[in-house]
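Quick one:
INPUT:
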């Protein structure tokens, strides 16, 4: 059984930098992260082992002098509240998430009504919209009715959205009409991050070669879920796991070529463990087949 890793997979630079900053020995025992630094259970566990505290919000009890904003970003009001409460604030927001914040602010300044394509409950999206006086988050065309009274629309996307979801949706937005029959003015700023695009393109390419895909990453990782969806859209069997212990050897029986991909918050050491486990399973299944045919 052949096993191939996608050309682009695993931790991106924004996640890597956030982890390195939080794991700084100088922070040991005196840093609290507001939310999950990144959406990966192994990373969260290592942070805790290094003495990093984790809370859901600034309203939770915090007993460290330092707090950190996660890689997913947060509203300016969160930064200001933390400073008002007397904490020293460290910002681990991914630069590509900050780009979304700047883009939507500029669209508002230009007179466009701000629209975000994404998951309204996701921490990144909440951070993007929380400082805005008005906004709309849309997921698909079923949400278009929310924009009926908006003649000028400025659109950005959650960084981890699927390319094949966002771009067609924007084209549909451009065909919307106002009540007088005129087309709405739509300005779109492509804010899907390059690491997300690279991983989606890599898994799409690899999916043409394999008969099974293993997708590695946190179950609450948006971009990891999108990688599995790329496979599902092509009719390819794909299993989403968080670690090598969750692998079922029966998945691989009869498979000839297995692909492995991973989300942008998945450490490479986790990917390596999965890869080695799949290799061992393949060798064991091949040995069993040899015994049966002997």
């Amino acid at each position: 059984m052949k096993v191939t890793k996608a050309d682009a997979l695993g931790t991106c630079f924004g996640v890597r930098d956030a982890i390195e900053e939080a794991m700084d020995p100088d922070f040991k025992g005196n840093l609290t992260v507001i939310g999950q630094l990144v959406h990966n259970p192994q990373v969260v566990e290592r942070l805790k082992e290094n003495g990093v505290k984790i809370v859901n919000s600034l309203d939770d009890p915090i007993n460290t002098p330092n707090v950190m904003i996660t890689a997913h970003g947060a509203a300016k009001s969160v930064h200001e509240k933390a400073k008002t409460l007397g904490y020293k604030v460290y910002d681990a927001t991914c630069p590509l998430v900050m780009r979304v914040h700047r883009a939507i602010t500029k669209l508002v300044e230009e007179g466009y009504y701000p629209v975000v394509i994404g998951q309204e409950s996701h921490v990144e999206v909440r951070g993007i919209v929380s400082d805005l006086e008005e906004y709309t988050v849309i997921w698909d065309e079923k949400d278009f009715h929310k924009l009926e009274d908006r003649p000028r629309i400025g659109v950005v996307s959650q960084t981890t959205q699927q390319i094949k979801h966002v771009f067609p949706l924007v084209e549909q937005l451009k065909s919307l009409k106002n009540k007088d029959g005129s087309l709405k003015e739509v300005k779109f700023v492509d804010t899907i991050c390059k690491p997300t695009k690279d991983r989606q393109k890599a898994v799409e390419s690899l999916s043409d070669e394999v008969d099974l895909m293993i997708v590695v990453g946190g179950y609450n990782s948006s971009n990891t879920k999108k990688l599995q969806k790329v496979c599902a859209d092509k009719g390819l069997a794909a299993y989403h796991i968080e670690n090598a212990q969750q692998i079922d050897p029966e998945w691989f029986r009869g498979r000839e070529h297995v692909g492995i991909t991973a989300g942008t918050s998945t450490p490479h050491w986790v990917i390596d463990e999965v890869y080695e486990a799949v290799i061992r399973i393949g060798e064991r299944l091949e040995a069993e087949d040899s015994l049966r045919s002997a």
